[in-house]
Design brief:
Blueprint lengths: L1 H5 L10 E2 L4 E3 L4 E3 L2 E3 L8 E2 L7 E3 L4 E3 L2 E2 L9 E2 L4 E3 L4 E3 L4 E2 L9 E2 L6 E2 L3 E5 L5 E5 L2
Antiparallel strand pairs: 1-2, 2-3, 3-4, 5-6, 6-7, 7-8, 9-10, 10-11, 11-12, 13-14, 14-15, 15-16
Length: 138
């Protein structure tokens, strides 16, 4: 039982709660896969999707499978919908799991809930295989 294994490491057992299959927290720590996660901030930590364990955020980072996503600022990151998020400088695709460096973050906006979006130069969508498509604006 993983809960028993972690109990020796819990700083504050009274405040301990299991958030989902992989994430847990107490007053002082976040735990991923029942191991203390030293980077995560318990006060600002939140799960981004109710139906799966992949994504979380705090005021420092965006996390995928317990690892901080490189170059995403958790303090300014905003989940726009289940397909897109952005911080002050980058647009991030949850579908591809990476920063989309060629998308202009300042003008980026979601246009529909199926993955449609646009920036000042392009219109973006996902095909049936989850691949990002880009079309130049006229």
């Amino acid at each position: 039982d993983k809960a028993l294994t972690i109990s020796k490491k819990i700083v504050n057992p009274v405040s301990f709660e299991i958030l989902n299959d992989f994430w847990a927290k107490d007053k002082s720590h976040i735990y991923y896969d029942f191991k203390p996660h030293d980077q995560a901030d318990p006060e600002s930590f939140r799960l981004l999707f109710a139906d799966h364990n992949d994504w979380a955020q705090d005021n420092k980072h965006l996390y995928q499978y317990g690892k901080a996503v490189k170059d995403i600022d958790g303090a300014t990151f905003e989940m726009l919908n289940t397909h897109w998020g952005k911080d002050a400088n980058h647009v991030f695709s949850f579908g591809t799991g990476r920063i989309r460096a060629n998308i202009d973050a300042a003008t980026f906006q979601v246009t529909d809930e199926e993955g449609g979006a646009e920036d000042k130069n392009h219109i973006y969508s996902f095909n049936n295989f989850g691949e990002l498509r880009k079309k130049k604006k006229k």
